[in-house]
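User: structure tokens for Aminopeptidase N, please.
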Amino acid sequence: DTPIRLVDYLPPSHLVDSVALTFRLHPQATRVLSQVCLRPNPARPGRHDLRLDGEALRLIGAAVDGVPIAAMPDETGLTLPASSLPDGPFTFTAEVEIAPEANTALEGLYMSRGMYCTQCEAEGFRKITFYPDRPDVMAPFRVRIESDLPVLLSNGNEVANGPGWAEWHDPWPKPAYLFALVAGDLVAHSAGFTTMSGRDVALNIWVRPGDEARCGYAMDSLIRSMKWDEDVYGREYDLDVFNIVAVDDFNMGAMENKGLNIFNSKYVLALPETATDDDFARIEAIIAHEYFHNWTGNRITCRDWFQLCLKEGLTVFRDQQFSSDMRSAAVKRIEDVLTLRARQFREDDGPLAHPVRPEEYIEINNFYTATVYEKGAELIGMLKRLVGDKGYAKALDLYFRRHDGQAATIEDWLAVFEDATGRDLSRFKLWYSEAGTPRLKVTDDFRDGRFSLHVEQVNLPTPGQPDKHPKVIPIAVGLLNPNGDEVVPTTVLELTETRQSFHFDGLAARPVPSILRGFSAPVVLERATTPEERAFLLAHDTDPFNKWEAGRALAKEVLARMVTDGAQPGPDWLDALARVALDEALDPAFRALALRLPGEDDMAQTLHAAGHVPDPDRIHAARQRMAAALAERLDPALPGLIDALAEPGPFTPEARAAGRRALRLAALGLMTRRDGGARAAAVFRAANNMTEEVGALSCLLDVGRGQEELALFESRWGRDRLVMDKWFTLQILHAAPAEAAAKVDRLTAHPDFDWKNPNRFRAVIGALSANHAGFHHASGAGYRVLADWLIRLDPLNPQTAARMSTAFETRARYDADRQALMADQLDRILAAPALSRDLAEMAGRMRR
Ligand code: HT7
Ligand code: ZN
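Assistant: Done. Predicted tokens:
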């Protein structure tokens, strides 16, 4: 497979003025009739062939301006020679047959438990009909659906219906990847929204009968998202109806199809008894994310798939802003940085590193990555920090004004910021083109009242990019005096060179610097400091992110020594953490985060970066010892904490109550190490919500108990697919390292292990790679069982198989034996017959 390159971009040969589609739905033989009005693109002078994408389509007939043509499709589409086409506007019509029931890849038109649905991003529309399936071809769509199923939906507004048919019209020009169709026996949870200009919009969440009572939180999140986008970005919704459909078989989280968002049911359906606080928070964020795409993605889309971060980075940034406005901004920022480091820093550190705007790909589905999404969002945050809130608001207004209805590029995006603020962003653009996480080495000195920070940035090579350039890095800094008062409030320093010094004058004493406040740039800060200074910042920093970061860094240093020297945690760390954990003036959610020990994968990454070869067993054992020591230190306070944090009234998913539950469960986890699980078993039995039910069960499993509770959980929830996903996951996640692979074997033999359902597959196989010591067990059993399942899934669902193969991306961190074992499994994958392009690209990059 030859790579597709950004430098080869050419505008489309033809533009589409309108599309009319008719679907005659049938599980094995759906007929799709298309009428596409095209004209030569003035941006491509001369006469050109018209290439229409099309895959796995049975062509029944085609015509140009009503005259049948003898079209001969190849494997990837159909070429209409320039000589056979009028040099003005013309109409291409086609009739094709497709088999949605046989579509296990869940891309194009497929079936999920009797319901028809589509997934067209990135290149699924070409599995529906012949069309120029590229995001820079935008057109209004008219869709007629014929089926006996009661609910027939497509994009835009419904314009007519009758028995067995419905017609939809979407007036907003859109690329084919935003096309959607749903047909099924569905019921709606409905509400309404009046936009800021007074237009009424009907809101519907369509689910299977019986699930309608589980849509309240998603609907509430949608309404709050619509209002927030009006208040904060001035963006109004633009159709008469906004439909959301929940689907059980879905490759990702959700999809922002114009006016008809399609969701993985996991991110819609929630009741306190079935969904955890994390589930509620994720539903809120994903509902918002997909809704926000209406402007950042749909009204303004991407010129080509290299520009994916244009819509995804910006929309992630917007959903993060929304969640931090709805919840605690400090806690949200800490959680986002934890995710960024766990997923994106890990990606940047290995063979899959790529720029936020990649320059080539083989399979675009492999580039829906943490780098494009999460690092892409960090770039927006940095831009905002550099130009200020007012500059950002001006730039965004200009972006919406200038590019509405267009397919835009990162150059367009940066030009808007330059034009709105007068800043030259040519150096900033390097963030989009160079992969890798910059290291910031910081030293300081203090003389005659002047405190100086000396900063050096190191940009290490990444695959295919040996030479890097210095980046523009906003470094937010505050200074505290020795008694803990802030003497210099947060100031944004701009690092533009490899080495630079920044000075603060007029200080009476040597201050303690708080550097990279709010995690102002996606970099690794390297600064030789003392545990005392970290403890000081943990106690006094006014920046909540850096306060947490100081505790985190302390814990990582202690844990690293426990791994490498077999040390025990000293009283200083234990006392510092205990002070935060028991400080009632602090937000319980923040205290819970402070109590969360560094993850094992995180420690492996940190130890590797420090020049060690991480040993997963030692990391696991040391982390267990660390938890035990913390439990011992906090022992007298734990019962009181658990009692005091019990929520008296009925369950509410709002952040304040969720924060209290998080702290209560953190205390319960520690107490389980002291009382043999008595209290956790009691909390499990008394729980009236899934957060506490799953939380208490996790505490028990973590100490090798909980078998009775697992059985109880299964008998209680055996018929609920989403809840049972948790039952599967928990057992793998908490399996002892030597037993994890065998546990996968046992659970994949369970009658409810439906491996063709991506949620269930991820619940089991994905959980294995999240059990660090289990996956990396020295026997190689973890690697083998993952490879077995990827090889099995790939022919059916290459997208999900490829995404889950990234468990192998950290190979280079480990010892030679483990590296060889992982290489063997990658070789087995690469040797699998009829390997998909998706998995071949991923395994190939990781094997290099
Ligand atoms: N824009 C969407 C990304 C996407 C996707 C979603 C579902 C299944 C397959 C998919 N491929 C790409 C989701 C989003 O970022 O909002
Ligand atoms: Zn998105």
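User: Anything notable?

Assistant: The chain has a mean pLDDT of 98.
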